[in-house]
């Protein structure tokens, strides 16, 4: 598809956003500067399927600085920022195939377009790119050295593919890096999810009944930030250890059926299907606002909600009102898609600096180790993960303590007791 010429205002706006984000991405900047000198990705073609935001733009620019030929498409129809697309295409010469709000057919056609460069490495968020390769463009698989995956949902899908011996090339689970999920999923998702809800609704959080479904790293972050704004937080969990942790963190723990009866806000963060289901909706509080912070729009059973409703209308940008047949009203933000990106701007650049540094260094690692890896899902190498943490601390003006030789010897001994 030919790139459409866009207005100068849109291009300038996108360029300003990209520069603004880069100011808070010093680790990625340091990788760019090193790569400009040694060009470790020269001759490598990289196809990426990611949320098209200013932070993502800086990752693609960094890959290009390393010598890679790159192409980008969106990983969610409502997470694309059109001004960033314009700037990437016209200022940075990064071919970007995405448009906010496009339909399902167009969305998947964009994925096929980025595969037209016949990539050596894929960069994914949700595994749609990898899945499309394995189902529709299998002739390209022999050319691929490896891939990376950004999010929990995608890693789950890829591990299932590997278990079934269906995965045809090695993939690095960037999401599982400590400098990714402990910060991006917790602090990034926490802040950006609350930000998306507040932008969409302009409602007060303090004093409300706020239900978080799922207490993984994302759920922890959302619960913490909602509580910090004065909401009374209830957690819904299926895992007894996580449920216990939520309770000891100070939150109520209830079944979804019970939590729905008094919920002012519900946020899903599970990566699973229909965690807010028909029987929950039948008892949900009048005026409840539903949103999702998992990757796919399957966590709220929207099909059942449609059937239960007599009317549906848009009442604010990104907010749809469903009036149920018994008169109750339920509101859904961003079509049940990622609320932090459909109604907000996604994670702060500060945390994406670490996440996308993991992506960049994992691409470099794959380019170097392509013949030494089997078709499986791998963690980010520990030395890269820890190196990113050290660089981030240094950029923040923090200092690490150093072990003395005596302390190292003590930690490695077994014969010294009380």
TrEMBL record:
Free-text comment on the cofactor: Binds 1 NAD(+) per subunit.
Catalytic activity as recorded in UniProt: S-adenosyl-L-homocysteine + H2O = L-homocysteine + adenosine
InterPro entries in alphabetical order: Adenosylhomocyst_ase-like_sf, Adenosylhomocysteinase-like, Ado_hCys_hydrolase_NAD-bd, NAD(P)-bd_dom_sf, S-Ado-L-homoCys_hydrolase_CS
Claim: Hydrolase is one of the keywords in the record: yes
Cofactor(s) the record lists: NAD(+)
Any one Gene Ontology BP term: one-carbon metabolic process
Residues annotated for NAD(+) binding in this entry: 151-153, 185, 214-221, 237, 272, 293-295, 340, 347
EC number: 3.13.2.1
A GO CC term attached to the entry: cytosol
NCBIfam families reported in the protein's UniProt record: ahcY, PRK05476.2-3
Designated name of the protein: Adenosylhomocysteinase
Gene it is expressed from: ahcY
């Amino acid at each position: 598809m030919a790139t459409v010429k866009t207005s100068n205002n849109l291009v300038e706006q996108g360029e300003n956003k990209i520069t603004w984000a880069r100011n808070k991405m010093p680790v990625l900047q340091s990788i760019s500067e090193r790569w400009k000198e040694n060009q470790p990705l020269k001759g490598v073609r990289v196809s990426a399927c990611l949320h098209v935001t200013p932070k993502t733009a800086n990752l693609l620019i960094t890959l290009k600085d390393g010598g890679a030929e790159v192409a980008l498409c969106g990983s969610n129809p409502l997470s694309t920022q059109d001004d960033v697309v314009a700037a990437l295409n016209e200022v940075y010469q990064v071919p970007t195939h995405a448009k906010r709000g496009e339909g399902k057919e167009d969305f998947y056609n964009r994925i096929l377009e980025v595969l037209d460069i016949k990539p050596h490495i894929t960069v994914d968020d949700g595994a749609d790119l990898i899945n499309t390769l394995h189902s529709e463009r299998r002739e390209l698989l022999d050319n691929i050295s490896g891939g990376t995956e950004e999010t929990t949902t995608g890693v789950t899908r890829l591990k299932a593919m590997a278990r079934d011996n269906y995965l045809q090339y090695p993939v690095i689970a960037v999401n599982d890096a400590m400098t990714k999920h402990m910060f991006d999923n917790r602090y990034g998702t926490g802040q950006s999810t609350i930000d998306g809800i507040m932008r969409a609704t302009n409602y007060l959080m303090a004093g409300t009944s706020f239900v978080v479904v799922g207490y993984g790293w994302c759920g922890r972050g959302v619960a913490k930030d909602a509580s910090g704004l004065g909401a009374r937080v209830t957690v819904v969990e299926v895992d007894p250890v996580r449920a216990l942790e939520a309770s000891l963190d100070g939150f109520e723990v209830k079944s979804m059926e019970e939590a729905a009866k008094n919920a002012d806000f519900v946020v899903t963060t599970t990566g699973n299907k229909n965690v807010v289901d028909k029987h929950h909706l039948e008892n949900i509080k009048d005026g409840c606002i539903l949103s999702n912070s998992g990757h796919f729009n399957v966590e709220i059973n929207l099909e059942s909600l449609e059937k239960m409703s007599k009317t549906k209308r848009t009442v604010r940008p990104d907010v749809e009102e469903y009036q149920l047949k018994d008169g109750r009203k339920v509101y859904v933000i961003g079509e049940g898609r990622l609320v932090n990106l459909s109604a907000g701007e996604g994670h702060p650049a500060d945390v994406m600096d670490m996440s996308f540094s993991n992506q960049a260094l994992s691409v470099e690692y794959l380019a170097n180790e392509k013949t030494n890896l089997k078709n499986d899902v791998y963690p980010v190498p520990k030395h890269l993960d820890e190196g990113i943490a050290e660089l981030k601390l240094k950029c923040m003006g923090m200092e690490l303590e150093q072990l003395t030789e005596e302390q190292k010897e003590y930690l490695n001994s077994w014969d010294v007791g009380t």
